[in-house]
Amino acid sequence: MKAVCWMGTGKLETLNVPDPTLLNPHDAIIKITRTAICGSDLHLYDGFIPTMEAGDILGHEFMGLIEEVGNDVTNLKRGDRVVVPFTIACGNCLFCRKKLWSACDNTNPNSHLMEAAYGYSGSGLFGYSHMMGGYAGGQAQYARVPFANVGPLKIESDLPDEKVLFLSDIFPTGYMAAENAQIQPGDTVAVWGCGPVGQFTIASAFMLGAGRVIAIDRFPERLKLARSLGAITVDYSEEDVNVLTALKDLTGGIGPDACIDAVGLEAHSTELQGVYDKVKTSLLLETDRPGVLRQAIQAVRKGGTVSIPGVYGGLLDKVPFGAAFGKGITMKMGQTNMHNYMKPLLERIEQGQIDPSYLISHRITLDEAPEMYKVWRDKKDNVTKIVIDPWAEKGSA
Amino acid sequence: MSHPLMEKPNAEQVLFSASAAVVMDGRYLAPPQDKDGKIWARTSAIVQADASELYALWRDVESAPKWQEQMTSVRRIGDVTSHWVMESDGEKIEWDSEILADEPGKRIAWRSIAGDSSNAGEVIFDTAPGDRGTLVTVLQEFHLGKIANAWETIVGRNPKQSVIENLRHFKAFAETGEIPRTQGQPHGPRGIIGKMKKSLYGETITTPPAEKAS
């Protein structure tokens, strides 16, 4: 099959590799019909994520048709159409039982790498480094999906792929961010970052009753999309704009009820000095760049909530914890517990409350993917979201 | 008290003082420190299964190759004795082991009695508070020396890390009926650095099968 392979920092190639096979009894093989490039894939491209190996297949946002299932998968059969969550969960450990799926204890075969780096291990992820499990990703024609009895969401309606594909990551991630913001009807919510996750955060904040959403970014195409959802936009790159002043001006001086950091630290800009040193080493984590987090804490109203879907990886310097304490704020964050959100959000799509495909700006082939990573990374060509048809030939997608 | 390097473990300290316990008389006990050629590994896991089930799985020594890394075969040779074989890249170490304490549903302690490895261990199964399954605590002891070094060379992991990985596999096997694996997946060409990383990360150690070998 064809697959997008990471061959080193800034070096991707679409290569022919062997087809995946069933390895465990709860596996399924999926023939991928649509897949996407995630903003967080750019951090792999740029070499920010340690423990990538040359030859790794990228991609964690994908859907397709069940091709084959292992002996212990009884809820799916060949031909079923499914969306696959990017976090892999076993369904049986203490954390899965508590519905903290992204904290699954069992799905990361390389837990020791993450434990060496962070002191804990979360669930395995598709196509996102060996520390996160080393699972082959979904920017390919086929993928092996472990614990297929737990994760994949069956799509029974005839909704086109593009309307449901983003249930694999960014829509639930944006939704959980809004849910974590503890929005009460009429609340004012500020969202930093209007990339794909920020977009779904804005849409979800409105769904959860926000009276006003303020969106902060600097790219015109993103701000335009945010306005199309009903948000008021603040372009922080404009010379006279000060974000904290803007948020005061828009809230009568008290600040937003909830502030959502959908940026992170250039997500994962963590340097890990040597990852696995047989027994005792741990790593040195370089300082993250928590500029948005600082602003969010400073901006939020007294007693408000800061929600953080943006990824942080290490140790943060000079976070205004005095202000956080003084204002008595709540902070909620974390990797998305995908499995809680996929079905209810599918229902919202089916009811026509949202059409996530509005975000798509580019439709490409697998062969075009390496070049499009570069275009998106360099913020050219007004990219908002790139979707891949893994079976299209060049020029026809 | 110091011990010379020896081929057979001085295992009594573990076995008869219940050293795998983490709490004694209400106090937390730190794990034993490595010294005098002995190294210790203590690790624990919360497993969503009854203590009796987990005890039975651990006590069924012949099934150990399903979840212990690099274990080729385990054969019972008596009521409490068994013969263990580990193998990697054609190199093999073998030893006999005996069970010294056996409390169904609660605790098992063992030590090697002959062969290429000097090791001893204990596993304790406690009901976790708050309906959270079973708290499994493992303490293992290895004697350094040429044989333990051979073990490390063959296994490709420090024995301490092997104890941690094996409990992880045990837990996954007990909770899900399988052990998550990525070996055998498709990938592009690894190149030299990719191959080095694979070995450095311990990914060249075969994930135990979780099922009986056919």
Automatic annotation (TrEMBL), chain A:
<dbReference type="InterPro" id="IPR013154">
    <property type="entry name" value="ADH-like_N"/>
</dbReference>
<comment type="similarity">
    <text>Belongs to the zinc-containing alcohol dehydrogenase family.</text>
</comment>
<feature type="domain" description="Alcohol dehydrogenase-like N-terminal">
    <location>
        <begin position="25"/>
        <end position="153"/>
    </location>
</feature>
<keyword id="KW-0479">Metal-binding</keyword>
<dbReference type="InterPro" id="IPR036291">
    <property type="entry name" value="NAD(P)-bd_dom_sf"/>
</dbReference>
<dbReference type="Pfam" id="PF00107">
    <property type="entry name" value="ADH_zinc_N"/>
</dbReference>
<dbReference type="Pfam" id="PF08240">
    <property type="entry name" value="ADH_N"/>
</dbReference>
<dbReference type="InterPro" id="IPR011032">
    <property type="entry name" value="GroES-like_sf"/>
</dbReference>
<dbReference type="InterPro" id="IPR013149">
    <property type="entry name" value="ADH-like_C"/>
</dbReference>
<protein>
    <submittedName>
        <fullName>Zinc-dependent alcohol dehydrogenase</fullName>
        <ecNumber>1.1.1.-</ecNumber>
    </submittedName>
</protein>
<feature type="domain" description="Alcohol dehydrogenase-like C-terminal">
    <location>
        <begin position="196"/>
        <end position="267"/>
    </location>
</feature>
<keyword id="KW-0862">Zinc</keyword>
<dbReference type="InterPro" id="IPR002328">
    <property type="entry name" value="ADH_Zn_CS"/>
</dbReference>
<dbReference type="GO" id="GO:0016491">
    <property type="term" value="F:oxidoreductase activity"/>
</dbReference>
<keyword id="KW-0560">Oxidoreductase</keyword>
<dbReference type="GO" id="GO:0008270">
    <property type="term" value="F:zinc ion binding"/>
</dbReference>
Automatic annotation (TrEMBL), chain B:
<dbReference type="InterPro" id="IPR023393">
    <property type="entry name" value="START-like_dom_sf"/>
</dbReference>
<dbReference type="Pfam" id="PF03364">
    <property type="entry name" value="Polyketide_cyc"/>
</dbReference>
<protein>
    <submittedName>
        <fullName>SRPBCC family protein</fullName>
    </submittedName>
</protein>
<comment type="similarity">
    <text>Belongs to the ribosome association toxin RatA family.</text>
</comment>
<dbReference type="InterPro" id="IPR005031">
    <property type="entry name" value="COQ10_START"/>
</dbReference>
<feature type="domain" description="Coenzyme Q-binding protein COQ10 START">
    <location>
        <begin position="47"/>
        <end position="166"/>
    </location>
</feature>
<dbReference type="InterPro" id="IPR047137">
    <property type="entry name" value="ORF3"/>
</dbReference>
